[in-house]
Specification:
The chain has 2 helices and 5 strands. The protein is an alpha+beta fold. It has one domain.
Amino acid sequence: MSTVLRVGGFAFGFFTDDHEPPHVHVRYSGGRLVMEIETERIKRVTGMNASDVAHARRWVRMHRDELLAAWAEHFKKEA
């Protein structure tokens, strides 16, 4: 995973073979989740409690523009 943002102990990133829609993989304290950036829709959660998920959602909301720009840049290079 290429980490593009670290905040509050959370790491946010993408995998090289990721696909649309823009989404982010989040790691925190041994747990992981996948969330669509624009809609904040949770695709998968492993090892995170509801509070962790709420914090991840808040960070995605606060850094949405940055994450979308990083997605565009990351996958422009891969194309």
